[in-house]
Amino acid sequence: MRISARYASLGGGLTGVEIAGELVEVLGGENVVIIEKMPFLMPTLNKPKASEVIEKFMAQKGFKIVKGNGVVEASRNHLKLEDSTVLNCDLVIWSVGVKAPTIFFDLPVKTVKRGWIVVKPNLQLQDYPNVYAVGDINHFALDSDCTIKMAEEAILQGKTAAKNIALQLEGKNPIHTHKPIFLSSKPKSLVSVGFNTALMIWENKLLFGKMPYVSKMFIENIVRDIKSKIGGGTAAKLESILLRILSRILSG
Ligand SMILES: Cc1cc2nc3c(=O)[nH]c(=O)nc-3n(C[C@H](O)[C@H](O)[C@H](O)COP(=O)(O)OP(=O)(O)OC[C@H]3O[C@@H](n4cnc5c(N)ncnc54)[C@H](O)[C@@H]3O)c2cc1C
User: What pLDDT digit, counting tens, does each position of 88-101 carry?
Assistant: First the structure.
């Protein structure tokens, strides 16, 4: 099979969806294609229904989405997909996610998936009590669940690790366990698709349209400005409370 599009967004994660949404506004849907390896868009949110909402909207704009088919080869004018489909395109936007950098330790460090370091509930490395890993680099598991890689989550993890390090320096046990707010089973996110539409995902609720977009702009442009003045931890809590209030208002 052969597909043609002027612009290809590789990776239908949050970044790929947002970029494609903006390209569609400027260039028209027929010129843009998203290629996603997993069977649905935004797989980190683990919400096939969220993918369906975006796909329906994109379909109305004449937009192409290829799912369950990863890119295996990239050359000057085309891409080749896992099932041998060839995609002709002029521009490729590579947004296939973040991978942990390789760091060499004296002893082996347990990692999973894309090199994420497995940590204990207090954020210490399993076999290195003097080493902590916080934020995107770690894999923080809670029963069968795990955290999503978000800035707010990283900030809160940093606070917990700092408290534990302080205890260790006093010769005490690092007993503070991290209480995650962004878990894979309860995703919270605002994803824009174009210049005036967004999808709000708040655990099991989905809200799509202009109001989530206005909320996103409010949080990104006003709340984050306030955040830079009042500090990360307090601001992360403020943002979380605001999102909670918004989700209640929007869902009636
Ligand atoms: C496009 C995009 C949009 C996002 N939007 C949002 C959002 O709206 N809301 C939200 O909450 N989160 C968002 N995120 C996620 C958020 O950016 C991350 O969760 C957050 O930055 C994680 O913080 P961190 O400190 O763990 O990692 P990072 O912010 O990635 O910082 C890691 C730092 O370590 C440096 N580094 C890497 N390797 C080494 C090395 N070997 N030695 C020394 N330094 C090294 C890197 O250069 C980098 O500066 C977004 C991410 C992306 C990519």
Answer: 888 889 998 888 88
Q: Residue 52 has which token pair?
A: 């369906």
Residues 58 and 113 in one domain: no
* β-bridge partners, 4: 88
148 in ligand 1 pocket by Cβ < 6 Å?
no
For the entire predicted model, the pTM comes to 0.82
Residue 103 sits in a domain of what CATH number? Answer: 3.50.50.60
Range of the domain at 149: 99-186
The total number of structural domains that make up the chain: 3
18 lines ligand 1 (CB under 6 A): no
Residue reference for tokens 């089973």: 185
Q: Report in angstroms the alpha-carbon separations of 197 from 73, 212, 249.
A: 33, 7, 18
Q: Which of residues 94, 121, 146 is at a domain's end?
A: 94
